[in-house]
Fold these 4 entries.
Entry 1:
Amino acid sequence: MDLISSTFKFSNQAIGVRTNNNIMSISYLRYLRTAQDILKQIEATQTEAIAQASDICAETIAEEGLVYLFGSGHSRMAVEEMFPRYGSFPGFFPMVELAVTYHNQVVGCNGQRQALFLENISGYAEVILRNFTFGSHDCMIVFSNSGTNILPVEMAMGAKEQGLPVIGVSSIAHSRSSTSKHASGKRLFEIADLTIDNCNPPGDAVVDIPNLAYPVGPTSSIGTLSIVNAIKCRVAELLTARGKPPVVLTGSHFIGSEESAKQIERSYDDYKARVQGR
């Protein structure tokens, strides 16, 4: 009862703040409103691009190809959001290079300085791509909020040289206001065959705090992960309509513990069959 009363009291306080027109003075409410605005912008402007990307991915998976996923830095979250996790399915191949994504060390061995350095070394993408054998039906999605770092730019370039359709997910506003670090001067959205804008504002920090010199509260992950799951849902719909329903990783909440364990094994076996020999 105390928790319920406390929650109700908090809700009333929030309403009171809103009624008094002081909402913009509350940092967490400003963040939540900005995040909602970004999702609304994606819905208003990016649904056609999301649909096109879903068509490409569904065609790839239906033809036993792989949708390769790459992101460095915090963009690796989008890669792992697509697969493997509950509610996802095989056909997507996560490419996660620990050297540029292993952030929890921060300093010392595997530190952030090394990761930031490697992300802008030309030729690194070529070394990564040499480890893979790409098929005629494969495609790639490259995630980069800024779209300006050398590694994701060269991953997109290298994939196109291999004949893969490339989908970029990036902040167009941030990219347009930034200079590419690649020698070509090109940014991800200028290389990809299709780009989905995550509608994140430049700088990737959206809340100004009085007396704090720098803004806080990044939103790029909110937009990008929403795009990822929108694509995932549409691809599942398209594959099912083709008579090739995906083997979805499904939790025990829906099918019970025993069947969930079996479904996880079926999904992993499906994934193994798809990547075997690559």
Entry 2:
Amino acid sequence: MLGDDPPPSTGAPTTAPASTLPPPPPPAPLGWTRCGNLECATLEVPLDYAAPGGRKIGIALNRRRASQPDRRIGSLLVNPGGPGGSGIENLPLILGRLSSEVKARFDVVGFDPRGVGQSAPVRCLPTAELAAYFAIDPSPEDEAEKAALIRETERFVAGCRQRSGDLLPHVGTPDAVRDMDQIRVAVGDEKLTFVGFSYGTSLGATYAELFPSRVRALLLDAAVDPALDTMALNRAQGESFERAFDAFVADCKAKPRCAWRPAGGPSKAAFLALGARVDAQPVPAGRRRLGPGEFLIGTAAFLYARQTWTQLAQGLAELEAGNGSLVLLGFDTLVERKPDGTYSNSQEANVSVNCLDNPAPRDIGAYERASADAARTAPAFGPSLAWFGLVCALWPVPPTGKAEPLRAAGSPPILVVGTTNDPATPFAWSEAMARQLPQGRLLRHEGEGHTAYGENACVSRIGDAYLLTLQLPQGELRC
């Protein structure tokens, strides 16, 4: 197996605690330049923090200055999630979620974590081959489909090794967090103020673990449980998407104007039958076709927010009629396919970080067994998400993460926000992170959708007060 080959490396992956590593040199002053309505800069950091005098890579930054500089508190570093999400590209969207008072008091700073976007991006395959990898059936039902999935995954892994082998050992979350500390120094802040969504919560919690005394405030929305390995994460996420889909079906049944009206009415059985049709014969979607991989990911994309359930219903109705265009649009959005047919590197970065951060079985049979188990508890999404870990079984760099709770001893209070029916990061993960952090405070948001800060008024009010004053209400936090 390709995954059994010795890993490429320019040095051992950096997993040691911050205190045991040689200190990196102070970052050079940032040369901010105008970049549309924002400012942009590049920060040089060591590729390998165990050898800080060696090769450097650039971390891309952008920012919006505080609108009331005389009242400025400092910088607010933000991350949209992923792993693989670009802070550079998403900063305008995040700014749209922040209150005017937060934007008045903070310079809001976005960044592309190492391996992502403009920061030494990991690349694996050219466009056509990447499209083939995305299109493969993610839930094989016979030996031929399983062989095809393994073959395309091996091709993807080989491409990552060939094109980005020198980067792969150094794109894990601990090194990205060390970059965040260099950003803190470069912008002149004594302590870090940070908002992280989804995977961004892993960055924030790991920062508190490595640099607890340098934390000012961390708002972590839609947390990932650091104590879970690849198999457990994928199993829980499959069940969470299943619950979100069940909520969508119930909502569709209750609304006479819901566009999706299959024979017998909206149901999981109707959805599974539709998926079987796409599996047997990809459906036309404009000049392209919707296959089983695009069908699953495209559906999931519309479950991230309750506001897009109407589009999901319309997309499934059109698919029943033989047009896969709207579901394919959901797929394009989630994997960041551009109008010219190329892709951002978000998914390549996603795999590279996840496989380094999270232990995973090397036995392919483990994923087949996990898929069969998931078919009983989460038949719509569980089997495919179980197989998504296959790439880590074949990955050329061994994982450095340990799937252990983070402790962050000595940090100040940290606000963890969890939404009770979040499809992508189950509420139990936010509960777990808040419980693991000695100063963790859980804000429970009753509702649907992925992330809540900047979307829900109650969550935003509590979050803003925390960022601005470092104060949280006493007792249970609930919205």
Entry 3:
Amino acid sequence: MTEAELIFTALAELSTRQIAESDQAKGMPKNKVAARKGGGIAKKARLELEERTGRSVVSGSNFLPPGKTKLPGKAGEEA
């Protein structure tokens, strides 16, 4: 991942956690709402940066081609 991708991921995670804490979210449905709101905050920031710089934040640098991934618990086997 690029530095920008890491920063926007961290923003989404921090926003989600703080929203969940302030809403006192308990259980999957309420935390899912907080996650969508937190992700939306990071999305708006990413889109604004991309608009102002004319460059995409998202890169393909962390992409693994099909057949190169391994499933958890299946050591040595390809997916």
Entry 4:
Amino acid sequence: METARPLVLGIDFGTSNSACALIDAHGALQVIPLNGAKFEMPTALFFASETHSVLYGAEAMQAYLNGTEGRLLRSLKSLMGSRLMDEYTAVGDKSIRFFDIVVLFFKELKRRCEAHVGQPLTHAMLGRPVHFVDDDAERDQLAQETLGRAATEAGFTHIAYQLEPIAAALDYEQRVANETTALVVDIGGGTSDFTVIRLNPERSTVGDRSADILATTGVHIGGTDFDRLLDLATVMPHLGYKHVGTGGRIVPSSVFFDLSTWHLIHQAYTRKSMHFAKELWTDYTDQTLHRRLMDALEEQHGHRMLASVEAAKIACSISGDGAVVNLDFLDRSLAPTVDAVNMEAALHASLAQVVQCAQDCVAAAGLQGVDAVYLTGGSSALRTLIAALRQAMPEAMLVEGNRFGGVAAGLAWAGAVHPY
């Protein structure tokens, strides 16, 4: 008697958001709701000081934004392949390794998925970017191994990997009728990945699609980089970034870069960093800016400021209109906006690199162009990016896919045909 094939959980562990999916026993795709009715779940944990509990996803973000005492950790994927993964960080009255925090998140993903399907899940197909780390094959391999170790410690016994843009292509393939040459553009929180692939629904059940993959490229630029650049452009000048101070010198910028980078914000609150920031008052000619900087540091508003920038970025991308960055918690007199003009100015260089990487992928495939450009990933809705891609590839049909569930769905299809 033939043994039933185990369910394989496709896990898109993202820098900003994570998603999971599987192909059920009837061959149907299930993208699993991880966050109420939403498929995407913020890749975030909050360690509450008073209750000594750990909150995940949207609950973690909400607890932090509500001012609950504790520690928020986000963008952990950005640490993959670095020495920081094995370092310890203070959480309440104890220290915990960043790696063990990733394991906790994987355990929570597994728990939520098992609760949804009503059975244990032991097989996983893990998504990975084309490059965890640019131009360093050894660290890139270390990052993949770290991802696999975290999944193993969370309780998965059988693990395989698939490139995230290829997974997105496999999801798109379920909706094409004829053979199509597609450039898959996967703009995540930490990376932008590209694949040129031949898609054909008749080959969707083939396990090895390497012959159809014509090229892959990737660059370590994503949504969290866009958040950082917009934060530096719209909010940090109100705290003294690029302020020309005493002697005509610009105020040192390291504190502003830490405050604008999701996974480095906690560094701005260390005793050493706080002392450095406090002593900067002699560099300022406008002490209002310095007081505002110190308020942001002493009240630990870094994540709130960056979350407000992110929310304005999303609102502007959806509507096309300017969106106010809410800074009421810091200074009610401030109302910076994110609009098409300052977004284009702040992101121009980074978006140019992303588009160039996309064009390089088409060139590496030996093609003059592609039939379709398929957009997926949480940051793929950015209007300035879509406009730049349209300009660069005017002949291709531009298709906007499932921004958050597409990669997970593709990983599920890949897992269903993988020989575990």
